[in-house]
Amino acid sequence: MALLEVKNLVTEFHTEGGVARALDNVSFTLERGKVLGIVGESGSGKSVTAFSLMNLVDKPGLISGGEIMFNGENLRTASVKRWSQLRGDRIAMVFQDPMMSLNPVMRVGAQLAETVAIHRKASRLEVEQQVLEALKRVGIPAPAERMKAYPHELSGGMRQRVAIANAIINKPDLIIADEPTTALDVTIQAQILYEMKHLARESGTALIWITHDISVVKDLADEVCVMYAGRIIERGPVAQIINHPLHPYTRGLIDSLPHAENHGKRLYSIPGATPPLLSLPPGCSFAPRCSRAKPGCGMTPPVFRAESREHRCFFPLA
């Protein structure tokens, strides 16, 4: 049985201008110890997926359909008390900006200790050892000293490592990371990616890694979901998606990456922009930006499946 099974998840935002469907029948599964990458441009629905999985969608947002099966339990029907038990214990999240998730007036050690104390009964010494171990696992040097520091006394990379330590400290079954390395330099980003992949393999923790950069998931994820305008438009094993994309949007994301062959040349960019959710074009949402669009794209493409791959395109790449 999969650890996480998302079935036809729908999240809407009810505004004065109408109903914006930020997630439109999103479905995927994730097994223990596996890493799932979710990629797409800003506005594609990646972060809304993360917040929906954590039941953190605020009004005017509403999760209006679908199922979130976690360890066989449908979290769509879970109570507020049950969610309080799960968050930070069995399911944890790493946010994009650690300064938004870390308390600026609490020392690092106290914040991690609080995460343990909420969900576990342990002595002060046991909690301190657990905090030290978590800081060591994310590669923080001199963890005993860092425990006494406030978040503003640490570098951006260190703060993000603390946020990750806070997520892993209770050894959750699932960690959702929402673009946690976007603001970090490439060296620190590479270290954190390596550590998170090692964590998933070592402890059996499942990981959802959300990013706008498809190159980030190339060496991290086992499977990748490509999102556009609230839908998963392509899904499959990461190597197959990178080497042989089927959807033109996925091909565009890959072509926009810098590499040795286009050194000194103008980088490719997908023409146009992601459409507003309140005024999506009929049929395929990507059609107005797609060079392969034909009259048939005026209809909404279903999910086409073949072996381990699936996509939403009437005219996929060969």
Automatic annotation (TrEMBL):
SMART domains: AAA. Residues 4-254 form the ABC transporter domain. The keyword Transport applies. It is a peripheral membrane protein. PROSITE patterns: ABC_TRANSPORTER_1 (PS00211), ABC_TRANSPORTER_2 (PS50893). It comes from the Bacteria. One of its GO terms (molecular function) is ATP binding. Its main location: membrane. Keywords: ATP-binding, Cell membrane, Membrane, Nucleotide-binding, Transport. Pfam families: ABC_tran, oligo_HPY. It is found in: Cell inner membrane. PANTHER family: DIPEPTIDE TRANSPORT ATP-BINDING PROTEIN DPPD, OLIGOPEPTIDE TRANSPORT ATP-BINDING PROTEIN APPD. Belongs to the ABC transporter superfamily. This is ABC transporter ATP-binding protein. It comes from Herbaspirillum lusitanum.
